[in-house]
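batch_manifest entry 22 of 60
target: Hemerythrin-like domain-containing protein
source organism: Moraxella pluranimalium
requested by: lab member K.T.
priority: normal
notes from requester: please return C-alpha cells only, no post-processing; we will run our own comparison against the previous entry in this batch. if the run fails, retry once and flag.
--- input ---
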Amino acid sequence: MKIFKPTHIDSKLQSDWLYLHEQMPPDKWYHLPSFCTASTWLGMHQSLRRGQGEIEHLNQNYQNGQLEWSEYRRLLLGRASSHYGHLHGHHGIEDHHYFPQLRLREPKLNKGFDLLDSDHHHIEAQLEQIQALLGQLRYQENADPKLADALYHAIKEGGEWLYRHLTDEEDLVIPILAIYEY
Ligand SMILES: [Fe+2]
Ligand SMILES: [Fe+2]
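--- output ---
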C-alpha cells in the first residue's frame, strides 16, 4: 500500500489517515469544478491565509518603523476584526455542521477529526488573548510599543497554528468532499 505524507512540514496528521489521497491526491484538488464544496472550502482557506498574512504584514511594518501609531492602530483594528470574525464563523460551521457529517461518512478518520477539533479549541483560546490585546489597542491613542510587541508575537503565534491547521484540515477533508461531493 502506498504511504502518503502530510503536506505541512509540521503536520500533526498520521500518514495512515491519508488513504483517500490514493484516489484524490492534492495535485487533483485544483482541477475540481470551481463551484463544488471542496473548491469552495479551499477558497475559504485561501482567504483566511490572506487575512492572517495581511495583519502579520501590518505588525511587521509597524515594527520596521514604516507605519505611524494612528495608522497602524486604525488598520490593525479594522482588518483584525474582519479576519478573526471570519475565522471564528468558519470554525463554528465546521464544528456544528460539516465535521459531524464527515465523521459519519468516514468513521476511520475520527482521530483525525478529534485533532482538528482540538486545534479549534487551541486557536479559539489564542483568539481570546488576541482580542484582549486588541481591546487595549482600541483605547490606546498614544504609541505603546510594548502593546504592539505583544500583538506582534500573539498574532504571529496564532498564525503558525492557523497555517498548520488549515493545511492538515485540507489533507483530511478535501478528499472526502471531492470523492463524495457534498
Ligand atoms: Fe478548521
Ligand atoms: Fe477550515
